[in-house]
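Give me the fold.
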Amino acid sequence: MFFHQRFVPGLAIYSYLVGDEKTKEAAVIDPTRDVDVFLEIAKREGLHIKHVLETHVHADFVSGSREMKDRLGDDVTIHASGMGGADWTPSYADHVVQDGEEVSIGSVRLKAVHTPGHTLEHVSWALYDDSRSAETPWLVFTGDFVFVGDVGRPDLLGEEARKELAHQLYQSVFDKLPALPDFTEIFPGHGAGSLCGKAIGSRASSTLGYERRFNSALVEKLEAQWIDDLMNQMPLSPPYFARMKRINKEGPKVIGSKIPGQRRWSAKEIHEKICENCLIVDVRSKESFAGAHIPGAINIPFGPTLPTWAGWVLPYDRPTLIVVDHPQQMPEVTTHLLRVGFDDIQGYLEDGIDAWQTSGYEIATLNTVPVQSVPDRIAEATVLDVRTEKEWNAGHVEGAIHIHGGKLQENYAIVPRDKPVVVICGSGYRGSIAASFLKREGYEGVSNVLGGMSAWKAAGLPMEKIDEN
């Protein structure tokens, strides 16, 4: 059996390619929108991708099923669960899957096991290799049902749905899983860093026996207590999750083989707003952004967490222009944004911020301050902590106000406008994002703390903590 696990950092997505080495037929499980990786592997190995299998309607990234079918043709069959009802059955599914149905690729069979809880329609795909055993699955693609060290969260469809989903998740964990032996390998849909669970481990796979012993979410207890423990300290879910659900149910736009957003825009064109209503997103480092940027630009530094924070804070109803350090970064930047549904990427600033500066256009800067100077500023400035609640509770600057960075735009009223604002996060990354929004909103005297709370702790400065018990 051919087996390939692909990991997408940042969004922490696992996708899979499996195939029969004799017939050369293959299937892909939960692909992201950038399908070229799988197409290249299949070509190299002489595999023919015949099936695309979804575990559920994803909330954190745009499905690549339609993209895969568009690139390979009608010989590809998209399989998606219909067990959540019509509201959660993707319109583009060629085969609407029911519990127990199988997809065969030579001697490899993939059997749908309905495991609701993270979502109503969720299925896990149990893989049988008939050349080894036709009765016992070798491994299970668990999607967002069981992770290494955790299970999928049941609260992404709202509070009312959460009650029913949490009940279903409890039943899936303690009624469905016991039928599988301890040696069954599990390959999840996400790894550490995903917001689809709160305690996902960094290992790429595990065995069911190991998880039964060391995964606290698989320890049976009274249902009400189990649900309370599961939901305790669950991180906030980004607002773009609801949009991804809708896109993946209705059918995402097909991008095609040519990656969009590669047009070069001159400084003059951008200054004269030829791209009407365009939002300028500067993906250079926080240090470069602080030194010089286009007024009104939003800073989300280039890296694995770019798509997550773009989904948190950027509007979906505006075209986007990118400022990069190097044009070679643009294909990857665009790919990051396409994964979370930002399809209207118009292009990038030709020759970067240097072109803007040499054209004589107005330059904005962002003040940065070392942690040692923050205590002296507390009396005259607002210290804004934009980390998560868990981070805040573990230790923060006394007298600071707390707003999760992803919630800042809906909570500007909490941030005073009559005095300077000093923004602090874990390392300065999120602080730069939040500070760029404050400046865009018209706040004056905005500063980002260099090194964030990591530097604060290293300097031995005093912190206030909140007892979570």
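The chain has 15 helices and 24 strands.
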